[in-house]
Design a protein that fits this description.
InterPro entries: DUF2268. Helices cover 53% and strands 7% of the residues. It is built from 14 helices and 4 strands. Strand 3 and strand 4 form a beta hairpin.
Length: 295
């Protein structure tokens, strides 16, 4: 297998310096190598619109701010760090689970939108998706806290990708339960922590409520909710969910990540497994084992 970390530095610099009329086509060309990310969507996806709707860097404003952030990423060797982190993480994973099927993976690393208060605020300047086999997408603003966690971020998404690749856990959008995503976020964080330690390995969004028992109990009450359309509120919380039209359930931002960490930590402690060894652990087993330990 191979990791292909797209040269989005060169592409983004060209887009941000180009005449406004040329930017949509240049952006589309940059995004096309990762278009397979949307292969399960009905009909053809407008890649440019999808990028902008998902808080990707704007093409009609904030050029100087984005160019400055882009240079910050280049100076931090962001693209090299991503590639090295993925290589090292895969070696650790294969040592633990040598028989898994590993796809070729394309990595799309882009700047986020500094003018999007939601992205820069509740989302902490970072969104990512590694759930579609063969693709990792990271939308990023180089806050110091995010740069420090860059490797952990891509390793977290790699864990998702390998869990849901062919031969791994099957994700049926209609029947999958909230508990599966909560456990998967906990497993991905646990894998990142196995490599980089607790401080850098935890997704920032989940840290504030890691020890909040009321949040834990509330998320646990929703673990059996099925249907992927219901997941945003239970995993990301009310504030992010309402942005996408979901109904609040009374959860703070990052609640599912916090609870996933607690469940997975309890499971790993009870079984003696490492996060890498638990890559394909059944979420029902994780939940039942963890709750038995925690209650």
């Amino acid at each position: 297998m191979t990791f292909t970390v797209l040269d989005t530095y060169t592409a983004m610099r060209e887009i941000l310096r180009a005449p406004a009329a040329d930017r949509p086509s240049l952006l589309k060309a940059m995004l096309e190598p990762a278009a397979g990310m949307y292969r399960y969507f009905p009909g053809e996806v407008d890649l440019v619109s999808m990028h902008l709707m998902a808080s990707g860097f704007p093409i009609d404003r904030d050029e100087d701010r984005c160019l400055e952030a882009l240079e910050t990423l280049r100076e931090a060797d962001a693209w090299g760090r991503i590639e090295r982190a993925l290589d090292e993480a895969l070696a650790v994973q294969l040592a633990a689970t040598p028989d898994i099927e590993v796809p070729d993976i394309t990595v799309l690393f882009t700047l986020g939108d500094p003018g999007d208060a939601h992205f820069m605020g509740p989302s902490l300047g970072m969104t990512a998706n590694g759930s579609v086999s063969g693709y990792l997408v990271v939308n990023f603003w180089p806050f110091p806290e995010n740069l420090a966690r860059l490797e952990a971020t891509v390793v977290h998404e790699l864990n998702h990708n390998l869990r849901y690749s062919p031969g791994g856990v099957v994700w049926d959008p209609a029947t999958v339960a909230v508990g599966e995503q909560v456990v998967s976020e906990g497993l991905a964080d646990a894998f990142a922590r196995q490599l980089y330690g607790d401080e850098l390995g935890r997704a920032r969004i989940g840290v504030p409520h890691l020890h909040d028992d009321a949040v834990f109990d509330k998320v646990v009450s929703g673990l059996e909710v099925t249907g992927m359309e219901n997941f945003t509120v239970w995993v990301l919380g009310d504030e992010i969910a309402t942005r996408f039209g979901a109904t609040p359930v009374g959860l703070p931002t990052g609640a599912g990540y916090a609870v996933g960490n607690r469940l997975v930590d309890a499971y790993l402690a009870a079984t003696g497994r490492t996060a890498a060894e638990a890559l394909l652990a059944d979420s029902r087993e994780v939940i039942d084992t963890a709750l038995e330990q925690l209650r």
